[in-house]
Amino acid sequence: MITSLFTSNNNKSRFFKKNNPKVISQHRLSSHQVAEIDHEANKLLQLTLLKEGNEGEIAYIKAGRMATQRLNEMGLVPKTRIKMLRKGILKGPVEILVRNSRLAIGAGLASKIYVKTR
């Protein structure tokens, strides 16, 4: 688990994992490492993990081109406020409130949306 990140003048990022410093150049960071940093810094979670009645802001969508396009066409874009209305049982669809409209999307698609909570 990454506990701290800072950038020095020589374009290097320093990660501290369990008191073991490791230096990695910024261009070698994988998308998984960047996502892990974001989760810790911004308290991000998948939309499917948001509790009923809670609100958040879409931070990013981690999906393929077609799935991202479909979500964007529904108005689900980064920095959009979103509220979880209902969740289906056994990983069923979720009902959300976005821009005064109710949407129902499948759990698979909802799990690709990461929201920042307060």
Q: Keywords, please?
A:
SH3 type barrels; six-stranded antiparallel β-sheet; disordered N terminus; 21% helix; alpha+beta; globular; 2 domains; 118 residues; three-stranded antiparallel β-sheet
How would you characterize the overall build of this protein?
There is one protein chain. This protein is α+β, with helices and mostly antiparallel strands. It has two domains: 2-42, no CATH class; 45-116, SH3 type barrels (Roll), CATH 2.30.30.90. It contains three helices and nine strands, in the order βββαββαβββαβ. A six-stranded antiparallel beta sheet has the order 4-9-5-6-7-8. β1 (2-7) and β2 (12-17) form a beta hairpin.
N-to-C SSE string, H for helix and E for strand: EEEHEEHEEEHE
Number of strands: 9
The number of distinct structural domains comes to 2
User: What is the CA–CA distance across the termini?
Assistant: 22 Å
Helix content: 10-25%
How many strands, what sense, and barrel or not for the largest sheet? 6 strands, antiparallel
Mean pLDDT, as a whole number?
77
